[in-house]
Specification:
The protein is mostly helical. The chain has one domain. The protein is built from eight helices and no strands. Helix 2 packs antiparallel against helix 4 and helix 3 packs antiparallel against helix 4. The longest helix has 54 residues.
Length: 225
């Protein structure tokens, strides 16, 4: 009987040790990830400020920072993986929708339609994203390090009041500006007849995307990475 209890105790200790090890590794990875993302968005912010100070205009700014923006926004797909494997307690679906909506704006709207890249609305949503992400990732970093400055905490939970509507306005105006070009070019559309016997009109799809902002857009982008 004593032997059985000892075996059980050993197994419990081993299980607890494994959990602690996994927890330590997960925390270390998340800390590294959030530091890297904070740094990435800071680099983006500095690049935007430097460009504007040098050129005195927003025209050409998007093309100047496009590579950095695409890289770090696409890299955020890892957050869906964090939720899927359970190291972050957030819905995979919610996180997936939030991340993919950003990636869609970058790759399938702004990057694909060069004629709109100098629109002020593009700079608006990029600036909003940058401020939001610097705040969010620095919040997670300091939180993981158990040293959260009051200002970061305050910014994380209050700045969305201004940032959210500005970001939505920027994204909606950008999609709206793209509609004439999409309609004329027929980009990403599939017309009948075709071998798949399927029709898809990207122009109307973008209109549906715009309408989806009304009930569905999550203002706080609340992912606990």
């Amino acid at each position: 009987m004593a032997s059985g209890e000892e075996d059980g105790t050993v197994e419990e200790k081993e299980t607890n040790n494994k959990k602690r090890t996994k927890g330590t590794i997960a925390t270390a990875w998340l800390t590294f990830y959030n530091i890297a993302m904070t740094a990435g968005w800071l680099v983006l912010a500095v690049a935007m400020v430097r460009y504007y100070l040098q050129k005195g205009t927003h025209k050409g700014l998007y093309r100047n920072i496009a590579r950095t923006l695409k890289f770090f926004q696409t890299f955020a797909l890892l957050e869906v993986g964090h939720c899927a494997i359970g190291i972050v307690r957030t819905s995979v679906i919610v996180t997936g929708v939030q991340v993919c909506s950003r990636i869609f704006m970058v790759w399938f709207v702004t990057n694909s339609i060069r004629q709109i890249q100098n629109e002020e609305s593009v700079i608006l949503f990029v600036v909003v994203w940058t401020i939001t992400e610097i705040t969010r990732y620095s919040f997670y970093t300091f939180n993981l390090l158990n040293h959260l400055p009051y200002f970061i905490k305050w910014a994380r939970y209050n700045m969305f009041i201004v940032m959210y509507p500005l970001g939505v306005i920027g994204e909606l105006l950008t999609i709206h500006a793209s509609l004439p070009y999409v309609r004329r070019s027929g980009m990403y559309s599939l017309r009948l007849p075709n071998k798949y016997n399927v029709s898809f009109d990207y122009y109307y799809f973008l209109i549906i995307v715009m309408l989806s902002y009304i009930p569905c857009k999550n203002s706080t982008h609340n992912k606990t990475s």
